C-alpha cells in the first residue's frame, strides 16, 4: 500500500481531467492521483469508436474554461476531443498523475483513521492494488462502460447478418454497400446514420417514436472572423458566453412555451426534409426538453434522408428474420447489419461499491449536497454535469467548489466533512426525473434522490449553481458536519456489514 494521498480522483475523462487540472492549479500542495480503468485518457471519447462519433454539445461550452476550445467546429469528433483532453493533461502538468488500467472495485471509509481505502485491480496484469486517501472524487460518469442497454428481440438468433451495439463497435467493420438498420432515435443514432450513409447502400433509422432533431452550423464563422480582429482568446471567450446564453434561453423557452418551441423544431425539420417530412416520423409526442434535444451539424441527417441515402421508419419490432426485421405493421426491413442504438445502462460510481465503517452505502436512498457531496458519506464527491447544457459547465464548477472546500478545511483544521439532512428533505424522485428518456426511467432505483430545497435540490441552472457553489460560504453548520484531524492511527482491517 502506497502513502496516504490527499485526494484520489477516479476517472480520466472530461470530469476527471478537469478536476485534476483545477486541483493542480488551485491547490498545488495537495497530493493526488487519477485512477483510470482504460489505457489512455478520454473516458467516453476513448470508449466509443462508432462512425461519426462526436459531441452533441457545442465545443465552446463543452471545452474547459481554463483551456478554451480553439477550433471553429461547433460539434467536434470524438478523436479531436480525446486529443484535446490529452493536450490538457500535458499543458497543466497532470499527465504523470494518471495511472492507467486501474479498475476500482470498492471504497471503504474508516472513521477512526479518517481515511478511504480503495480496492482495485490492475487489469492488464491482474495485480490487486490498494490506495488510501483523505478524500475521494468520483469522476466515473453515470453509465456502465462494460455493457450498454441491449434489449433482447424475438427471433434475433435467426438473423444471418451482424448485430452490433455502438458501445462495442467492431474494429475495421466494412459496411460498404450494405443495408443497415439502426434501432433507436437518440443522439447515437442521429450521429451514426449520416456517417454510415456515405458508404452503405441504405441506412434505415427504426424508431418507436420521434425525437426532436435540429440543425446547427458545423463551422462557427462568427468566431473565425472575430479571431482575426480581436486580441488572442477573446473570440473564444465571446463564443462561450454567447453559446451558453443560447442554450439556456432555448431550455427556458422550451419549458415556458412548449407549443411554440415544438413548432420551431418541427418547422426546421420540415424545411430541411421537404417531401420526406411526415409528422409520424419527426413530430414527437412529448414536449421539447422532456428528453435531450438531438443536434446535427449542417443538417447532415436531414440531407441524407432527403437524398434517399437514409430513411426513417416509425414502427414497432415484431421479430427478427433471417434477412432483417419484421415490423408490427407487417412491413419488412431487409438488413445485412443491425445496429442496436438502444441506449446506455446507468451505473453509479463505475460500479464501485461503497462502505462506511463496514456498512454498505445505499446511494439511491441519499441526496446530493450542492450537487457535489453525498449525504452521510464522509469526504466523498460525485462530479455530475448538466443534462440541459454542456456537461463540462457544471463539472468544472464542481471542481472549483471542491478546491474551495479543501482550502476551507485546511484553514479551519478540518479533516472530515459529512453532509447531513436534518429537515427530512428527500423526495420520492431522482435527480434526473425531469427527463423521460428510457435510460433515466430504467435507473430510478439507482440514482440519488432529489431534495425539496437547497442545498439538496439539483436544479440544472447555471447562474444559480454558480451562486451556490462559488459564492456562498463553505461553512454550513446546519447541513455540513465537520471533524478535526485525529491523531494518526492505523486503519482497522476492512470489514463489511451485509
Summarize the structure.
The protein has 13 helices and 25 strands. With 498 residues, it is of the alpha/beta class.
CATH class of the largest domain, named Alpha Beta
Low-confidence blocks of residues: none
Radius of gyration: 24 Å
Gross geometry? globular
What's the structural domain tally?
A: 2
* Mean pLDDT figure: 94
Instruction: Note the gap between the termini.
Output: 26 Å
Total beta-strand segments: 25
Number of helices: 13
**CATH-defined fold name of the largest domain:** FAD/NAD(P)-binding domain
CATH superfamily of the largest domain: FAD/NAD(P)-binding domain
Task: Tell me about this structure.
The strands form seven sheets. Strands 1, 2, 3, 4, 5, 6, 17, 18 and 21 form a nine-stranded mixed beta sheet that branches. Strands 7-16-8-9-12 form a five-stranded parallel beta sheet. It has a three-stranded antiparallel beta sheet with strand order 13-14-15, with no helix packed on it. The chain is globular and about 75 Å long. The chain contains 13 helices and 25 strands. The protein folds into two domains: about 5-145 and about 345-485, 3-Layer(bba) Sandwich (FAD/NAD(P)-binding domain); about 155-340, 3-Layer(bba) Sandwich (FAD/NAD(P)-binding domain). Helix 1 (about 15-25) runs parallel beside helix 11. The mean pLDDT is about 95. The chain has about 500 residues and is of the alpha/beta class.
Amino acid at each position: 500500500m502506497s502513502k496516504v494521498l490527499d485526494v484520489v480522483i477516479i476517472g480520466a475523462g472530461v470530469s476527471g481531467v478537469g478536476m485534476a487540472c483545477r486541483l493542480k492549479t488551485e491547490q498545488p500542495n495537495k497530493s493526488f492521483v487519477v485512477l483510470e480503468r482504460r489505457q489512455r485518457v478520454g473516458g467516453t471519447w476513448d470508449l466509443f469508436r462508432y462512425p461519426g462519433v462526436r459531441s452533441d454539445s457545442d465545443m465552446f461550452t463543452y471545452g474547459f474554461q481554463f483551456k478554451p476550445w480553439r477550433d471553429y467546429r461547433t460539434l467536434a469528433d470524438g478523436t479531436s476531443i480525446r486529443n484535446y483532453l490529452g493536450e490538457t493533461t500535458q499543458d497543466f502538468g497532470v499527465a504523470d498523475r494518471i495511472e492507467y488500467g486501474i479498475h476500482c472495485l470498492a471504497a471503504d471509509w474508516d472513521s477512526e483513521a479518517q481515511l478511504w481505502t480503495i480496492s482495485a485491480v490492475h487489469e492488464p496484469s491482474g495485480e490487486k492494488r490498494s490506495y488510501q486517501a483523505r478524500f475521494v472524487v468520483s469522476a466515473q460518469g453515470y453509465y456502465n462502460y462494460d455493457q450498454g442497454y441491449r434489449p433482447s428481440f424475438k427471433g434475433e438468433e435467426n438473423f444471418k447478418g451482424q448485430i452490433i451495439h455502438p458501445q462495442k463497435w467492431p474494429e475495421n467493420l466494412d459496411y460498404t454497400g450494405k443495408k443497415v438498420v439502426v434501432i433507436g432515435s437518440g443522439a447515437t443514432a442521429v450521429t451514426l446514420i449520416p456517417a454510415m450513409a456515405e458508404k452503405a447502400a441504405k441506412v434505415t433509422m427504426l424508431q418507436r417514436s420521434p425525437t426532436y432533431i435540429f440543425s446547427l452550423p458545423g463551422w462557427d464563422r462568427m468566431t473565425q472572423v472575430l479571431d482575426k480582429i480581436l486580441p488572442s482568446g477573446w473570440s473564444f471567450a465571446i463564443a462561450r458566453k454567447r453559446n451558453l446564453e443560447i442554450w439556456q434561453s432555448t431550455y427556458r423557452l422550451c419549458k415556458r412555451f412548449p407549443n411554440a418551441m415544438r413548432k420551431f423544431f418541427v418547422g426546421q425539420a420540415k424545411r430541411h426534409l421537404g417531401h420526406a417530412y411526415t409528422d409520424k416520423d419527426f413530430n414527437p409526442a412529448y414536449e421539447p426538453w422532456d428528453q435531450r434535444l438531438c443536434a446535427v451539424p449542417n443538417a447532415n441527417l436531414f440531407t441524407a434522408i432527403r437524398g434517399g441515402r437514409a430513411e426513417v421508419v416509425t414502427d414497432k419490432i415484431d421479430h427478427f428474420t433471417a434477412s432483417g426485421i419484421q415490423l408490427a405493421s407487417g412491413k419488412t426491413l431487409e438488413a445485412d447489419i443491425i445496429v442496436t442504438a438502444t441506449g446506455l445502462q446507468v451505473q453509479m460510481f463505475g460500479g464501485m461499491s461503497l462502505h462506511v465503517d463496514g456498512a454498505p452505502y445505499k446511494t439511491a436512498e441519499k441526496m446530493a449536497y450542492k450537487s457535489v457531496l453525498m449525504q452521510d458519506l464522509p469526504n466523498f464527491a460525485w462530479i455530475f454535469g448538466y443534462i440541459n447544457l454542456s456537461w463540462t459547465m457544471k463539472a468544472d464548477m464542481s471542481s472549483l467548489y471542491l478546491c474551495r472546500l479543501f482550502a476551507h478545511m485546511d484553514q479551519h483544521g478540518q479533516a472530515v466533512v459529512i453532509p447531513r439532512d436534518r429537515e427530512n428533505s428527500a423526495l420520492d424522485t431522482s435527480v434526473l426525473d425531469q427527463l423521460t428518456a428510457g435510460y433515466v426511467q430504467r435507473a430510478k432505483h439507482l440514482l440519488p434522490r432529489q431534495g425539496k430545497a437547497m442545498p439538496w435540490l439539483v436544479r440544472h441552472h447555471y447562474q444559480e449553481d454558480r451562486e451556490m457553489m462559488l459564492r456562498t460560504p463553505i461553512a454550513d453548520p446546519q447541513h455540513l458536519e465537520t471533524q478535526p484531524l485525529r491523531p494518526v492511527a492505523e486503519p482497522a482491517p476492512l470489514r463489511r456489514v451485509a
